[in-house]
Hints:
Largest sheet of chain B: none
Largest interface: A-B, 30 and 28 residues
Structural class of chain B: mainly alpha
Radius of gyration of chain A: 21 Å
Number of helices of chain A: 15
Strand order of the largest sheet of chain A: 1-2-3
Helix content of chain A: 40-55%
Distance between the termini of chain A: 48 Å
Distance between the termini of chain B: 37 Å
Strand content of chain B: under 5%
Helix content of chain B: over 70%
Oligomer: heterodimer
Number of strands of chain B: 0
Order of helices and strands of chain A: EEEHHHHHEEHHHHHHEEEHHHEEH
Amino acid sequence: MHTTIFPIGPQHPSLKEPIFLKLYVEGTIVRNAEFNLGYAHRGVEEKLENKEVDTVLHAVQRTCGICSQCHSLAFLRAVEGAGEIKIPKRVALQRIIIAELERIHSHMLWTGVMMHELGLETLFMYFMREREKILDVFDDVTGNRVHHSADLVGTMKRDFSEDDIEFILKSIDSIKQNVSNYQDVVNTHDVIRDRCIGKGKITKADARKFGLVGPVTRASGINYDVRVNSPYMGYKFVKVKPVVRKEGDAQARTLARMDEIYESIRIVEEACGKIPRKEKVPKYPVKRIAQGYGIGRVEAPRGENFHFVKIENAKTKRVKIRTPTVANVVVYPRVLQGADITDVPVIVMSMDPCISCMERVAVIRKGKTEVWTSHELSRGRKND
Amino acid sequence: MIEILLTVAFILIAILFSGIKRKLIARMHNRVGPPIIQPFYDIIKLFSKEKPQYLNPIFNAVPYVSVICSFVILFIISAALLGTSFDFDYNFILLGYLFILLDTFYIFGAVASRNPFAIQSSVRELLLMLGYELTFLMVIAVFFAKTEIVSMGAYALEYGFIHVPVASLLLILVGFVIVRVTPFDVVNAEPEISGGFFTEYYGRDLALIEIAEFVKDLAFGLVAGLLLLGKVYALPFALLLVIFYALMQASSPRYCTFRTAKLFLLIAVIAFIDLFLLV
Lengths: 384, 279
C-alpha cells in the first residue's frame, strides 16, 4: 500500500507545545514515526552558568510552568548536597507539601487535556476548575500561582502559618470529593475505556529498555519512584506508596495518574500533620557555597527529574538539567507503530509530554545536525 | 416569493441557532461563552478578510456550490412548510440527495486541497456515508411510505414518532453525524485531523462553508421536526434538537472511526428492515 506522510506539529490542535511528529501512514495505520524537537529551545543551561546560586535558583524554578517546585527541589538537593547544608524538618516538609500539591495540579491538568483529546471538553473544564483551587493555595501560601518561588538555599521564603495549613487541608478535601466523581466517569465510561484500553501499550521489558520514568513506567509494572528509592527532604518523614499497574496501556497510565492524585492528597495530609509546630524556619538563606558539585534527583509529576550542579568560586560553573520528558519521549516511535491515526493523540498525550522544559540543544544547519563539544557548548559558540 | 423570504429568515435563524448551541455548550463547560450573535460577527469578520488565492478550480468552487446547495435545501423545506406551488412531488427524495451532494462537495474540496488532514477527513466521511446517508434516505422513505403521500407539503402525519418509533429513533441517531456532534463527529475530530475538510479554507470561502454547515444543521432539524411532530412544530423541534445535540456534545467523548462506521452500517440494516416490513 502507498505510504503517505501525515504531519502532526509543530503547530497542531492536539499539541499544546511544539514538537514535530512525522507519521508514515498506510491508509489510516501508522507504519513508522519520527519526531523532531528544537522549536522551543530557550538556552536555559547556558543562562544558568557563571551566576550566583540564589540567582540560578530563581531561574531554575522557571524551567517549567507546571513542575516549577520539582526543578527547585532537584537544584536545591544538588546544591545543599554540594554545600553539605542541613535543612530543618519544618522546611523539608513544607517543601514537599508544595511539590505534592504541584503533582496534584499537574495530574489534573493532564487528565483534563487527555479528556480534551478524547473529545470530552466538559470534563477538561471541570478538571481545570478543580485545579484552580490548588493554584489558589499556591497564591495563598507562596504568593505566586504558577512559578511559586517558595524555596531558598537552606530555607523557605515564607513560613506556613496555621491558617495556611488549614486552608491547604480544606482545599484538598473539597478536591478529593470532586475528583472522585470525575474519576468514576473516566473509569466507567464505555467510550473512554474503548479508546484507551490496549492503546499505546508499553511492556515492562520495553519500559526498562528505553529507561522510561514516572507514571509511564509505573503503569508498565516497574515499581520505581525516587521518593521511595532515594527519599529526600520531607519524604524521609512520610510514607509514600507508589501507584503501580501492570497493563502498560493508555488506560493504565490514565488511572495511575488519577490514583496518584489521591496518594498525593494523602501525603499532603500526613505531612501537614507532621510539621513541627515549634520549630523555626531559618530567616536567611545560605549565601556562599565556595565550591563543590552535587546531583539532585527528585520525583516530578512526569517522573525522575535530574539536576547536576558544579560550583566554582561561589558561582555555578555548570548546571545540567534532565527533565522526565527527555527519558519518555524516545519511546514515541515504538508506541506509535501500528496505531490508528484516531489513537495517535491519545497515545501521545498518555505519555504526558512537557516539551518546552525538555528542549536543550539542537543545532541544525542546512538540514544537517551538528555535533558540538562540551567546550564549545560551554562557550556558547562553535570553534573556528 | 414568500418561500424566498422564509428561506432568508431560516438562514438567519440557522446562524442564530449555532450561537445558541455554542452558548449552551459553554454553560455546560462552566464558561460564560460567547454572545448568541457571535457567529454573525465571525462571518462578517471572515468576509472582511482578503480574497483567497487558490489555483485549483474545484477547491475554489466548493464553497459557492455548497452554500447554494444548502440554500436550495432550505428553499424546498420552506416551500413544503408553506405548502406553495414549489412543493413538488417526491421532493423528499431530492432533499435526501441534496444532503448527500452537500457532503460530496466537501469531499471534492478536501481532496482538491491535497491537505493530509482534509484527505483523512474525506476518507472518514466516505466510510460513514455508507451507513448514515443510506439510513437517512431510508428513514425518510419510511415516513412517506407510512402516510402514502408523495410530497413533503402534503405530509400531514402528526406525532409521527408514535407511528414509526424505530425510524424516528434512527433519524435522531443519524443526526449526530449530520450535525457533527460527539460521539460520532469523527469527520471533524479536531485533535487528530485539525480542521478536517476545511483545514485549507479561510476568509470568505470559510465563511460560505460555515453558513452552509449552519443551514444544513437547521435543515436537518426542520426535516426531523416535520416528520416526527408535524409542520407546526418543525421550528420548535429544530431548536429542541439544537439543545439536545449541544448537551450530547458537552457530555460525551468521541468514538473510534471504524466502530462508528460499523455502528452506522448496522443502523442502515435496521432502517432497511424497517422499510422492508412497511412496504
